[in-house]
Amino acid sequence: MGTKLLGIPNIDVYLVMGILLFFIFIEVIGGYLHQTKRKSGDWIQELGSFLLLSLATKPFIVLAVLFLGNTFFPQAQYVLNGYSLWLLLPLYLFVDDLLQYWYHRSAHEYPFLWKLHRTHHQAEEMGFFVSYRNAAVYYLFMPNIWWMGLISFLGGGIAVSIGLILKQIVIIGAHSTIKWDKPFYKNKFLSPFISLIERIIITPAFHHAHHGKSKLDTVSDPNGNFGNMFSIWDQLFGTASFTRQFPKEYGLQTPVQDHWSAAYLYPFVHSKDEKSELSKSFTKSNTSSLEPIFVNLIEGENYLWCKCGKSKSQPFCDGSHHGSKIKPILFQAKRTGRSKICNCKKSKIGPFCDNTHLKF
Ligand code: FES
């Protein structure tokens, strides 16, 4: 950060700010502020998170790494000086993005990290600031910020500066309401290009699907598409879900709007809403039972079967699986009528009961 590029000190910082301002400008003239249903708490969280990350957390981590490096490994400082930018830039970006993929994925699969990341998914509309919307503590543990400090210490500062600019374009673009990829899907000449682009970098459609409410709309995949800059990690680790459409609804499957102070300052501040995972008294209890549940299904309708056993709307998913590795199962009813749905969660033909529960 703050590197001299093209003879201009701190040009990377100005460019990163410029990219954000560019997206703000386009969204504002596109009528975003008139249409937005955001409340003041949303703006406080997103702006506060952006300012804290940019002005305190990132500089603190980078300075901490420089201090530790200089104290314990002074001979390693600037060892990368003299290496080509063509080597350092991909090295910085790919390692950064791989670390961020796993951190983001872990934030969906482990309860404590999920609580720090959950506010990111409480946003019920996309927009330029959503990419910064996380609990303050979330960024302290973010491994790729530490990696940024390390590679700067080793002498890769210019690669970091250019990499940050490229990352910002992709990440803010993926969260923005400016769906730059949409024309590609509609035009048959442009379509092959987007098929290639989306296999490399994150497009708005790919990332909006991650913010969609639930898989029920057959577009969204809140438990997939974890990539930040590159989609290659999702493809490599089996979490990619490509789509040419955008979700109609964004946010958590079961909306709970915590006060911004709890969402932003958890675990130091807790939610007063007992239904919120951020409240002190909240527990996720097992709601499954040995007995199957009979429900009336409608032919052609989609249903999301709860696999984690924690939903309060058994046998269907209500989003309680977030913060675990278990995902719901999407299925379409083949006929209208009563069906015996598994609720012990052990059926081999789930969502339907195969009498496995009788063995217990
Ligand atoms: S609540 Fe979604 S899988 Fe159980």
Percent range of helical residues: 40-55%
Reading side by side through the largest sheet, how are the strands ordered? 1-4
> Helix-strand pattern, N to C?
HHHHHHHHHHHHHEEEE
Strands, total number: 4
What percent of residues are in strands? 5-15%
Sketch the major β-sheet.
Answer: 2 strands, antiparallel
Number of domain units: 2
Radius of gyration: 22 Å
Query: Please, what is the average pLDDT?
Result: 92
Instruction: Tally the helices.
Output: 13
Topology:
Layout: H1 11-29, H2 32-35, H3 40-72, H4 85-109, H5 111-122, H6 136-140, H7 143-153, H8 157-175, H9 182-186, H10 191-197, H11 204-211, H12 232-236, H13 260-265, E1 293-297, E2 302-305, E3 329-332, E4 337-341
Antiparallel strand pairs: 1-4, 2-3
Give your account of this protein's structure.
This protein is mainly alpha-helical and 360 residues long. Helices cover 44% and strands 5% of the residues. It has 13 helices and 4 strands. Strands 1-4 form a two-stranded antiparallel sheet. A two-stranded antiparallel ribbon has the order 2-3. It is globular, with a radius of gyration of 22 Å. Bound molecules: FE2/S2 (inorganic) cluster. Residues 306-308, 310-311, 317-321, 326, 328 line the site of FE2/S2 (inorganic) cluster.
